[in-house]
Amino acid sequence: MSSHDIHANGELPHEPERATLEGRNKLLGFWLFLGGETVLFGTLFSAFLALRNNVADGKTAQQLFELPLIALATFLLLTSSMTSVMAIQAMHRQKLKELAIWLIVTVVLGAAFLSLEIYEFYHYVHEGHKFSTSAFSTSFYSLVGFHGAHVAFGVIWIGLLIGQLFRKGLTVVTAPKVYVASLYWHFIDVVWVFIFTVVYLMGKVG
């Protein structure tokens, strides 16, 4: 970190994720990456909407989905989005311990969401709703499972960042990594809102 990366009093800038050209380039590159991810998810959503009524001999969405479980999973994931906001606010206040705590809470909530999703999939398979049961089941598992894989990646990513923060502290190098991870987490939360609406709510009401 150069002398230009800190203020005269030794503190980091208010937005350390943007304090260096490298940090700003990381943010720009990540926005481009999210654009590509949006296209991928859009394709999966389109396939699901086209195939959701092709249930063959399997169960329909109305027969299968249990909204209380999905609502709980949604609550956990949306709450984790709020805790990631709190983490970034702590980072801007240069409160390393508080930042780490909020990131840990985010990881725990994300892991809890994944646990519910795994239970959900196990229950559906037990009910005969397997990946190859019908076009509906294939498109469902492809979309929701792809999102679940993103959540799992985010949990691992943020977990590794927490370890890095404890080793290296909050610097203009680690700050952009935390900020980008937060953007990623918000992205998968927004995608889940669409999944909850398009897959579960629309499926339940027919």
Automatic annotation (TrEMBL):
Topology term for the membrane = Multi-pass membrane protein
Q: Mind listing the UniProt keywords for this protein, alphabetically? A: Cell membrane, Membrane, Transmembrane, Transmembrane helix
Q: Which family does it belong to?
A: Belongs to the cytochrome c oxidase subunit 3 family.
From what superkingdom does this record's organism come?
Bacteria
Span of domain Heme-copper oxidase subunit III family profile: 1-204
Q: Transmembrane ranges?
A: 28-49, 69-88, 100-119, 139-162, 183-203
> InterPro entries, alphabetically?
Cyt_c/ubiquinol_Oxase_su3 (IPR024791), Cyt_c_oxidase-like_su3 (IPR000298), Cyt_c_oxidase_su3-like_sf (IPR035973), Cyt_c_oxidase_su3_a-hlx (IPR013833), Ubiquinol_oxase_su3_dom (IPR033946)
Q: Pfam families recorded for this chain?
A: COX3
| Source organism phylogeny | Bacteria, Bacillati, Bacillota, Bacilli, Bacillales
Q: Which Gene3D superfamilies match?
A: Cytochrome c oxidase, subunit III, four-helix bundle
Where found in the cell?
A: Cell membrane
Under what name is this protein listed? Cytochrome (Ubi)quinol oxidase subunit III
PROSITE patterns, per database record: COX3
Q: Where primarily located? A: membrane
